[in-house]
Amino acid sequence: MPDVDRPRPPEGDWLGTPFLHFERLGPIAKVTVDRPERRNALTAAMYFGIRYAIDHVGRDDALAGLLLTGTGDVFIPGGDMGGEQVDNWGAVHLLGMDTTPFEAVRNAPKPVVCALNGLTQGGGMMIAMLASVSVASERATFRAPELFRGIADTNYGQILPRQIGPARARDMLLTGRVVDAHEAERWGLVSRVVPHDQLIDAAMDVLAWCCRTGPEARRAVQRSIDGFYGHYDKMSMEDSLAGAESMEGITAFAQRRSPSWVPEALRLDGRL
To answer: What does pTM read for this prediction?
Structure first.
């Protein structure tokens, strides 16, 4: 593994960050998010590393599919909103929507299966929805907190209502409601829930079955499903990410307080 004191971009099976581990398990690639000291929060390089891994698997004739999972009790909570990032080889230029993994997951040329081992929110929940199949541990939880950060996540506004219906999407997006694994399965947020100690085996079995399907036929079906999701307002989201409201939301999160737009009588101690 390269020296973390000298960050460098992805190359081969190195995903550009010490916090993503790439393993070859026969024809299956397994990527594990492993940053427990920050609860698996994704740095810019980690976001890009997941995108790179999908492209890397897609180009490798020895690999048929990708399994993505996390460590401990967290899958992916979204992006890191503070703290030193030792993998910062690309600086802020990696934070744009062009370099995040969502489109890559959605249009992956080979199956991507997520094994959701715990907390799944923000960018992690988006990845889980767009994956070929997501298998959740009974311990997994789901949340979309972007509006509490002042981020107009139009990708969520487009995808989530089509995944679980408009009423439930409004509930999750406007209230920050936490949904447990079994409720997520009933809603169609994920398709399978399994006992925690069976998660990886179950997800590997799902991926194996996906890899047995005809590649060209699978991609044709995938294009049809992709059309159901439609297109999101990318320009508005980019404007929001660079705007004053999201800067205040991110600052408030880092300072463990309610953002300034919350009426004083409604402010809570700690993060929203």
So the answer is: 0.94
Residue 23 CB coordination number (10 Å): 11
State the pLDDT at residue 139: 98
Name all domains of the chain by residue range, CATH numbers in brackets: 20-241 (3.90.226.10)
Spatial CA neighbour of 27 closest among 61, 57, 69, 63: 63
Cα 259 to Cα 188: distance, rounded to the nearest angstrom: 32
| 127 burial level (CB within 10 Å; 0-12, 13-18, 19+) | buried
Distance CA 164, CA 162 (A): 6
Contact yes or no for 117/196 (Cβ under 8 A): yes
With a cut of 70, say whether residue 223 has pLDDT above it: yes
Distance CA 90, CA 24 (A): 26
Nearest to 85 by CA among 35, 31, 14: 35
- Residue 191, number of CB atoms within 10 A of its CB: 12
pLDDT in tens, 124-145: 999 999 999 999 999 999 999 9
